[in-house]
Amino acid sequence: MNQLALNDLCRDFNLSKEKSELLASRLQERGYLESETKVTYFRNRSKQFEQYFSKTDDFCYCNNVNAMFAAFGENHNSDEWRIFIDGSKYSVKAVLLHKGNKEPSIPIGHSTKVKETYETMKELLKLIDYSSCNWKICCDLNVVAILTGLQGGYTKYSCFLCLWDSRADEKHFTQREWPKRNDHVVGKSNVLKTALVEKKQRYFSNIAHKTRANEKFCQSFSKKSGK
Question: How would CATH label the architecture of 48-149+193-225?
């Protein structure tokens, strides 16, 4: 087995550096590797890409997306990629997703020291130089609200698409159409801060909410069954 075949095998099994080296060592002991194949190759397999990533006190991020794509041997076309941004109380991440799922996903920003807030998203977009790429942003409702600059919590106008009134209980089951949220004025209709991205650049992804809904369903099912 030559080096390329061994690399493909480790990638197919999704092995870490340590496990890849362990597998290569076992194969070498049994004589399955060619003499030119290096067992220690995996120790530095990511070294050529380290120059395209930087660290701050809170973030690890890609400092040059175009150069990183060039290192992959690919041309970066922002129209063919979307950036998925998600976060929680403990972490934030940003991943590039290919539109047709023909290319693997590429993580370009990550932190385990911050939570999803307006200031965090603003810093993340600045670090990855979002303004020069302008990918379409794929995210859940929480991140959409943050990127839009809406006030958090139980507010009167919480929707980023229309002026749905959460306090008008008597209209929730009778009124089907609500005025569109056409303007974005700070201090009006629960807009707390300036929007971080243009309206046309963001859209809601229901992947995360489907996952959470399935988790809640399974939890309720477990309680009902007494398990």
Answer: 2-Layer Sandwich (3.30)
